[in-house]
Amino acid sequence: MAGKVKNKIVEAAWELFYEKGYDNTTIDDIIRRSGTSKGSFYYHFDSKDAFLGTLSTILDEKYEELYREMDPAMNSFDKLLYLNLKMHEMLEQKVNVDLLASLYSTQLVAKEGNLLDQNRIYYRMIGSIIEEGQKRGQISGERSVSELTKYYALCERALVTEWCLHRGGYSLAEYSHEYFPVMLEHFRVC
Fold it and tell me: What is the pLDDT of residues 34-79, one digit of tens each?
């Protein structure tokens, strides 16, 4: 039960951050939108700033949802492209670009970078798809699974960072659709 309440609060907060911006969203706004109480809010979070650490959780939940929707027989390389495109569509539609830029910058100075945590669902999922692709002969085995997983994450972050630097001045999804396959092409087995 406590997990569901926390998820409601997190979901409401991120919706509001997108709609109103981080600075213009109050704790009372979040409580109202989530249909919870101040007690519930403060049971799970010390402050509004505590939400900045929840982005990786939200992203991982979306990755899990997308993974379940994919056809298991889909080419493993195509699975990687699909996940990237769908995640970048979600970022573009649900996460305010200024807030995303702030979150990325906090990762530069944080003692622990939760976006880089190798135990995240994201890294395990991408690694398992790459391993599957290598076994199927669809992804090159010239590099290890961990090296390719790291490269995949680096390419995704590069596209998002560039988009943030341009303040969302173009479609992240369209840009990713065009350039992410080029970034990974060396690892595709035809």
Answer: 999 999 889 988 887 777 777 777 788 889 999 999 999 999 999 9
Question: At residue 189, does pLDDT exceed 60?
Answer: yes
Residue 33 and residue 16 in contact, taking contact as beta carbons nearer than 8 Å: yes
Domain boundaries of the chain, sorted by first residue:
2-46, 52-187
Query: What is the CATH superfamily name and number for domain 52-187?
Result: Tetracycline Repressor, domain 2 (1.10.357.10)
Task: Calculate the alpha carbon distances from 28 to 35, 38, 72 in Å.
Answer: 10, 8, 43
Six-digit token string for 19: 């709609």
Q: How confident is the model at residue 174 (pLDDT cuts 50, 70, 90)?
A: very high
Neighbours of 73 (CB within 10 A): 5
**Two tokens at 48?**
């509004």
pLDDT tens digits for 33-42?
999 999 988 9
Please give the Cα distance from 103 to 74 (Å, whole number): 33
Q: 2-46: what fold?
A: Arc Repressor Mutant, subunit A (1.10.10)
The pair of three-digit structure tokens given for residue 112, joined into one six-digit string: 């622990």
Residue whose token pair is 């249909």: 35
